Amino acid sequence: MNRQIDDNELLHEIAPYAGKASDVLLKIIRQWQSSLPALEDTLTSNDIIEKAKTGSHGIQIKKLVAMFATGIAAIVIAGVMLFTHYFSGTMEKAVCTAVIGDVHVIRGNQSVPLMNGMGIQQRDRIICGKGSMAVIEMGSLKLRVDQNSEFAIDTVQSKGKLLLDTSMTHGVIYATIAKLKKGDSVFVKTKTAVASIRGTTFMIKSNNNITKLIVLEGKVMIAPRLDIIPQESTPGVVVDVGQACVVDAGTIIAIKKAVSMNTTELDTIIQQSLPVTIADKKIIQIIETLTRDINQAIPVNENELTLNALYNIKAVVPDNNDVLVTTSDGVYYCKDYKVEWMYSLPMPSKPFKWDTMYILQSKDLYAIDRKGDVLWQCGIEGEVLDDGILRIKNTIIVPTSKGLIYFIDKKGRVIHRVDCNAPFITKPVLFNQMVCIVTDDGYLYAIDISLGVSIYRKHIGTVIENGLIAQYPEIYFVTPDSIQKLHVLKDELVWSFNDSNIIDAIAYDTGIVYATTNGLLCKLSANGDSEWRISPGKSIHSLKSIHNGITCIADTVFYLIASNGEVLWSYTLPSSDATIVAVTPKMVFIYTENRLLTLKI
Amino acid sequence: MDQSIKALSDEELVQSVMHGNDRAFEELYERYSERIFKLLYSYVYNVDDAVDLMHDVFIRAYRHLNKFDVRRAFSAWLYTIAINCAKNYRCKVYKNDTMIEREEQRIMNTDAMKTPEDHVIENELLQEFSKAVDALNNKFREVFLLRYGQQLQYSDIAHILDISERTAKWRMERALAFITDHLKKKGVI
Q1: A115: buried, middle or exposed (CB in 10 Å: 19+, 13-18, 0-12)?
Q2: A57 — contact with chain B (CB < 8 Å)?
Q3: For A110, A558, B105, B162, which has the most beta carbons within 10 A of its beta carbon?
Q4: What is the gyration radius of the CA atoms in chain B, in angstroms?
Q5: Contact at 8 Å (CB) between A511 and A531?
Q6: How far apart are CA A441 and CA A558, in angstroms?
């Protein structure tokens, strides 16, 4: 341990807080130190050793056992190292990497709750209850066991060669696996069929005597189970990418082209296979409602709050009756117009509120609580996109300027890291069990949240910054010259509406409101029909949606009713460089000339 | 005790204990028992309990020496054990409101040799100071006790608490701000 601190060092440390009273405080601290009682009546070290040795008679035995076990373990480890070295293979463990809801593992005669990080062993049986889900990973293999499913690991072995036999009594499994090496084998058995998998992404559903397989990438060979249905049955078939196959009581009854412009088959099946569709929507609604409720309590009313004239205000996050403000020198927590605490952090990103934590970046990603305590710190590549962080359940989705998306849990652990190979031009949006985003090279990605893999990729061209609006199962994408509606699951363009110089767009009701640089503000219905069109002012900078209206900032700030375009009020800004930093149902926070201006709606 | 043992570093002593030299453990016990006791006392505010806990810390340390990584600082490892023991004990045994009462009682019972005036003034100062320390958020108090109670460097505190040095410094700043604010409000400083 390093040298101990002296009085001068302590005095220097106390001075900023105690000022002229530093000497007095140091004296009190010294008195306090000397007032602590001295150690008198105590055991000797021999007594301690005796107690340590005799506290449990078994300690010596334990030591011997430990030595013996260490010896055996050393032999085993050496053997395994030799084995793996000889076969140039790597040991991979099957591990649960995500679990939601009621999921149990039957191991021997015991049923234990499946936990995140728990190893999965041979002969384990996994039971997912209603509304639950688990993800299991083994090397490049990722398996998502959906709700109301029962799934067993019959054989698992990965010493040199990967051998995985699984069986499913009922339910749905969604799986993705990188190309396997020669000699590797992965099987999924259901009551009626056996699927042999190579590098692929697929979904398999088993219900009583019917097995349904959909291949989204690669190929899967499927055959009826001869051990269960020994009579003459159809031989196995290879199901190609985009095909669905149904096996019924020993017979392959159908292979259909699942991905097609004209069919709704895949749409229906995928909706059935995604277990938390309704739950997701509810969660999203709850988040939105909570955000509204939290924001409603802001007590300020057409007032100005000056924090630090030396530093520009970057962002404002309302929180209960308080406000979190970031400037270029750090984070300020303000209560009743006073700074409650300040955390020095150079150039922090706009904070994202996550329950009682704020997530923000200053090189690393930080989680800070309401008391200003750093809860965790996580290294990421690139800069977090402004307003780019999304939250779903106990995970946040963090896109960075390097074209990477991180999925991070509440303890700051990176669950998935997805590389989209190009910088992002839009913010990510939640899309059922997926997150959608568009890259600089014009590709729309849909990434499965549980698996952390891209399951849909389509070239849609250049879109504007806020140009991705999700309304499952459809997505609006807004280019500078058009607004288009895409049915993602059918991979079908529903409609396209042309205009020019589009600069911003937001979802409203089931339609969309967009603004142009010519100063036009327009509303389109969900069918692509123009509902209203007004001219609130030249050069509209930004739009923000509030529960029953829209705030539009141009040369002046407008508040209007989105359903009919009626302007309720307007406010002329003191400066042309004003930007909206936050909008709540009752308040608009505007940053202008180094001051925070609040307008009551 | 053999002078050559006194010249050994903590980590060398640990290696010696692991080779069966109990005299090396005696030296470690001598070096740290008082400091660990004072740290524990700051958590439990009771001499008997602090002594018992201190014994427990050294018993645990002796039993688990084989788990200690000799490349790291023994003192940090020992302090970590002590803090964990103290936290467990505090959670199990005490309610926060009894802490201050115990401390007030202890201060009243000490320094019987001073004049009544000195006694009253100093007791008041120390009581207010103890109240402020005890009212600190747990995380801030831990850093404060290690820094001002044990006079450790931030690098060591960071190591013991498994946090970054920057976080340790920041917690200390918050602790000092809270304590001075409390003492100013009470008119102590």
Answers
A1: exposed
A2: no
A3: A558
A4: 18
A5: yes
A6: 35
- pLDDT 10s digits, B40-89: 888 877 788 888 899 999 998 998 888 887 777 888 889 989 988 887 77
| Phi, then psi, of A304 in degrees rounded to 5 | -125, 140
Identity of the residue in A31, A48, A377 whose CB atom sits nearest the CB atom of B62: A48
Going by C-alpha positions, the residue among A146, A244, A150, A239 that lies closest to residue A189 is A150
Cis peptide bond prior to A473, omega within 30° of 0: yes
Mutate to test the interface with B, among A24, A30, A39, A60 (most CBs of B within 10 A): A39
Sign, CA dihedral A17-A23-A26-A32, equals negative
Residue pLDDT, tens place only, A565-584: 676 666 666 666 666 666 66
Between chain A and chain B, the number of residue pairs with CB atoms below 8 A apart is: 129
Residue pointed to by tokens 């023994």 = B74
Element (H, E) at A406: strand A404-409
d(CA A42, CA A47): 10
CATH number attached to the domain at B95-189: 1.10.10.10
Hey, what are A72's tokens?
């055996």
Strands A163-177 and A185-189: parallel
CA torsion A145→A149→A153→A159, rounded to 10°?
A: -10
Residue of A540, A580, A584 whose CA lies nearest to A313: A580
Handedness of CA A134, A137, A138, A141 (dihedral sign): positive
Does the pTM surpass 0.80? The reply is: no
Burial B112-139 (b: 16+ CB within 10 A, else e): eeeeeeebeebbebbbbbbbbbeebeeb
Residue A34 in contact with partner chain B when CB distance is under 8 A:
no
| Residue range B1-94, CATH number | 1.10.1740.10
A45 touches chain B (CB under 8 A): yes
Query: A371 — contact with chain B (CB < 8 Å)?
Result: yes
CB contact under 8 A, A1 and B58: no
DSSP letters of A305-344? E---TTS-EEEEEEETTEEEEEETTEEEEEETTEEEEEEE
Whether the Cβ atoms of residue A578 and residue A571 lie closer than 8 Å to each other: no
A14 touches chain B (CB under 8 A): yes
The pair of three-digit structure tokens given for residue A387, joined into one six-digit string: 């307003």
Domain ranges of chain A: 1-32, 95-273
Q: Find, among A402, A347, A357, the residue nearest to A380 by Cα.
A: A402
- Complex prediction ipTM: 0.80
The correct CATH number of A95-273 out of 2.60.120.1440, 1.10.3720.10, 2.40.50.100, 2.60.40.1890 is 2.60.120.1440
**pLDDT over threshold 70, residue A447:** yes
Structure tokens that stand for A24 in this block = 């007095």
Question: In chain B, which residue's Cα lies nearest the Cα of A62?
Answer: B63
